């Protein structure tokens, strides 16, 4: 999942619209939540994305245990299903002969939807890529009829995808229970110049099993992957690796390009990954505490760029959260524009299953401004359902989309569940002002003006999209006008540098 966001400290005082962070947004769906059944029986969520137009994509698989198919739903900003997507807002289809699953997705700059997943024939699986047009139809210029089904003699399981600036695609997962990354051309064919014939398998000193769960791309195009490994003592440990852009292992990271460590007393699992603007690496997951109630705590570990633990974060490099005195499981993580980390997942205690979130400050402490109890944590359940949080995304106004699935209490059915939460992040619909500069109009359609109070200094101006790609770079003094008409609609960050000072604001391109 590409989470290489340029997420920078907001050092200005914009005109803000505030809401209680971490409370349900009643303007979305029914009291903040919507449920959807793509198939009458079972529906499971694995990933979510907010499109540049604000519509929300939620995807996973649906069907029965013998007939799971890729499944996706698209919602309007009010939570209603978007009928312009495949006629009713949902789509379900097969890739492969038996079962297929969506594990990740991204939206391309041209609006097309790129889906990463896997197939399974009850013996082995393969990576699968699908590209849809904006209306949900298959893009016939990609693969065969919009589908690139990569068949090998190995057992390949995809967990994450990233779209590169040149349109090529990275998929990460595991091959025969070993970390594996593959690269594909923009048309869906394998890029044989990457690794060995398009694939890199990462060794972990002969450990019997290792599983990638997340991926992020650095600004220098190096590839960071994380997950967990099983050692010879039958103990799960957090695992990470870094590859160069050509698929070779980056030996400047960890030990010969790999890293394995524990943060708890026994089994530790990593399920999420994000990169800070300074290149430090956040790994989200959970650690084992005790077998009673299957106790686990949520954890976020921060690594320096060389793979060493950043001991200035949390407790010697690790932040923790405990919502219940039972099972606290992580599934996904996202960084806000102020670099606070939101880790999401599920809690289970005394038969209650809830979706869960925790927000951490940049030093690893729980954020007391988040959640109704002011403890940095949020849990939510739907009456009569068992709820599991699986994926998280941020809207342009930083409202939080928490997606997952819920079982009926008899266990005979499950459905997509999507909730939206208020956030005290910046709305981005007014001019930004402070003692140093102002930026206007915001939103902007054709031209953006930056006006500095200090006319004597020269400022370096950089504009980044929300995937971390630099789309503009120039210098201004006193006042500058930037033509943004060629930028795609969406949210961007404007970074101004002068000597050792950095300020960042956000603007919306219409």
Automatic annotation (TrEMBL):
The keyword Disulfide bond does not apply. Residues 439-506 form the Secretion system C-terminal sorting domain. Residues 1-19 form the signal peptide. Keywords: Signal. It comes from the Bacteria. InterPro entries: Delta_60_rpt, Secre_tail. This is T9SS type A sorting domain-containing protein. It comes from Aequorivita ciconiae.
């Amino acid at each position: 999942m590409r989470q290489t966001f340029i997420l920078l400290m907001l050092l200005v005082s914009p005109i803000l619209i505030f809401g209680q962070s971490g409370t349900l947004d009643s303007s979305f769906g029914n009291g903040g939540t919507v449920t959807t059944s793509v198939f009458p029986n079972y529906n499971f969520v694995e990933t979510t994305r907010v499109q540049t137009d604000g519509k929300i994509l939620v995807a996973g698989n649906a069907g029965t245990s013998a007939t799971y198919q890729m499944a996706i739903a698209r919602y309007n900003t009010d939570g209603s299903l978007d009928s312009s997507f495949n006629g009713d807002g949902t789509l379900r289809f097969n890739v492969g002969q038996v079962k297929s699953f969506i594990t990740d997705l991204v939206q391309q700059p041209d609006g097309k939807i790129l889906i990463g997943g896997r197939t399974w024939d009850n013996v082995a699986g393969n990576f699968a890529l699908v590209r849809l047009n904006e209306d949900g139809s298959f893009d016939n210029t990609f693969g065969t009829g919009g589908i690139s089904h990569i068949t090998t003699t190995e057992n390949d399981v995809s967990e994450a995808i990233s779209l590169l600036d040149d349109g090529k695609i990275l998929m990460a997962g595991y091959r025969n229970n070993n970390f594996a990354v593959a690269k594909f051309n923009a048309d869906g064919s394998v890029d044989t110049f990457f690794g060995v014939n398009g694939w890199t398998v990462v060794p972990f000193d002969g450990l019997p099993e290792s599983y990638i769960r997340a991926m992020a791309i650095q600004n220098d195009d190096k590839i960071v992957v994380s997950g967990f490994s099983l050692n010879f003592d039958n103990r799960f440990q957090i695992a990470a690796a870094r590859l160069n852009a050509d698929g070779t292992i980056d030996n400047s990271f960890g030990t010969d390009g790999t890293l394995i460590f524990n943060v708890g007393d026994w089994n530790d699992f990593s399920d999420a990954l994000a990169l800070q603007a300074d290149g430090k690496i956040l790994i989200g997951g959970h650690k084992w505490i005790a077998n009673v109630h299957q106790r686990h705590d949520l954890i976020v570990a921060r690594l320096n760029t060389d793979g060493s633990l950043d001991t200035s974060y949390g407790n010697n490099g690790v932040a923790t959260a405990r919502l219940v005195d039972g099972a606290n499981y992580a599934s996904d993580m996202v960084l806000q524009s102020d670099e606070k980390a939101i880790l999401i997942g599920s809690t289970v205690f005394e038969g209650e299953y809830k979706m869960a979130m925790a927000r951490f400050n940049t030093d690893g402490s729980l954020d007391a401004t988040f959640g109704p109890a002011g403890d940095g944590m949020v849990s939510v359940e739907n009456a009569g359902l068992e709820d599991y949080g699986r994926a998280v995304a941020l809207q342009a106004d930083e409202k939080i989309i928490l997606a997952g699935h819920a079982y009926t209490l008899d266990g005979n059915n499950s459905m997509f569940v999507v909730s939206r939460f208020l956030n005290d992040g910046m709305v981005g619909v007014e001019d930004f002002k402070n003692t140093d500069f102002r930026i206007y109009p915001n939103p902007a359609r054709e031209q953006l003006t930056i006006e500095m109070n200090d006319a004597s200094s020269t400022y370096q101006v950089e504009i980044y999209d929300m995937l971390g790609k630099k789309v503009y770079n120039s210098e201004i003094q006193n006042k500058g006008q930037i033509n943004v008409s060629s930028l795609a609609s969406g949210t961007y960050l404007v970074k101004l540098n002068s000597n050792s000072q950095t300020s960042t604001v956000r603007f919306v391109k219409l």
